[in-house]
Amino acid sequence: MLQLLTTAGGVALILFAIRFLRKGLDRLFGPRLGDWMRQLAESRWRAFLTGVGVSVLAPSSTTMSLLAVQAVQERQLSVRQMFAVVLGADVGLTVMVLLISLRLDAYAPILLLIGVVLFQFTRSGRSRGIGQVMIAIAFIFMAIGIIKTTATASEPSEHFKMLIEAAGFYPLILALIIAALTVAVQSSTATIGLVIALGAAGVVGLNVALAAVVGANVGIALNTLMVGWRQIDSRRLALANLLAKLTIAAAVLALLPQAAETVSAIPVGMDKQTALSHCAFNIATAALFLPLIGPMMRLVAAITPARSMQETERFGPRYLNEATGGSLALALGQSMREILRVSEIVRSMLEDAWRALRDQDEALARQVQERDDQVDLLDGQIKKYLAALAAAEGERDERGEIMRQMRYLNELETIGDLIDKNLAELAVKRATQQVRFSDAGWAELEGFYDKVRQNVLIAENAFHSRDPVLAQRLLRHKDRLSEEDRVLRDRHFARLRQGETQTHESSAIHLDVLTHLKRINSCVTHVAYALVEQK
Q1: Closest by alpha carbon to 284, among 87, 96, 100?
Q2: Which structural domain, as residue segments, surrounds residue 142?
């Protein structure tokens, strides 16, 4: 019983280390890994090499799955490009497994010492991130050592021997069990690390190890499919990855005796043979499917036709995904993208409300009002998502980012209400009452609206880029618009005194339009104040 509990403790330490590793990668790279990936993945081979490089820097299969799904959902990379990146990432991730097989557990305390010094006694986010990654890797090595030592400390029970021997006769069932385990723990590295430790202790044979390698690779592909299921492009990416893995998996299982014989001829221990098998599995997948990206894309497009998917898709959050593998940086990237989607809807509402006011189009004004329901729906879902993130453990910068997103989302929701309940209503009123503006009055309103619309776009870019220069520009525009509002009102009152008939007819609507545009402008400049304070 003690042996079993100690082994379970080693497995738990691997799982904790993998989670701690993801947190360290967030601290070290944040969203930059995804940015690098999107910038470098131009051609097929560059995309493949980019995937290798990024996954070596960030050796977490779940992190790579989430990055891939997010990049495709945001349409920053095509499914074709991202599939090449994923093939490269799968090869790069094998570096960590190869390190695990080198029996570096004796050096784990040294890594742990250096990591703790960097993590506990430095202030730089980068050095603390490096320290956290080193601590996580040390934990993985220590866990492998614990499992290996425990397994060799005493002779395994007869029942355990019989179970392992039986598993070797049913490789398909074993692969399915390992795949399910990989999905549950969300890490192929953890699953294969456990097999390596048991192999080093002589507990499992090569047939069992190879079946486990197959199951772990299929399992992480299934995990990617689950994460990307809600959106068609990410679903196609994940399906292509799964089909590629299943093809190689079927070949390995069909030729398992021959594969085991070939691997056993490698003059290294069982642990290294397992790691090399994992590496060979992913290299074979890349070698076969990198030249076949085109046919694979056509196949997954045929399996998941876009039209039928879009017809049944209901309106709702497009980028929010609860499965972020504990990565707060990735989760905040998803909420950022969803908020930018809300911003696009609000901008389209403003533009269409103005068009309805200009053209006296009552039907268009009613459509704008209906769109505010979409803003309200997304606002509620995103706030719920951000509230859940705020309840999780996070760094000061991450908590500050949550509040920044909350504030901007709140301003967008307020602007949506102003457009719905005020500008659109004024458009309806003008259309039904056939109110006419003077040429001078309408020209002034049009110029004022153009400046407000420009500020809405500047605010969106400032929010996305956190650019203090844009923030300062937005504040300068606010002061100018406040002065222009006073000037335009004075001109309007002057026309009233002159007795212009059209000015009298449109006076109430004219002044209300100025008021509501100024309120919208006030909302968007709150983004600038937040950025200036942050600076």
Answers
A1: 87
A2: 2-305
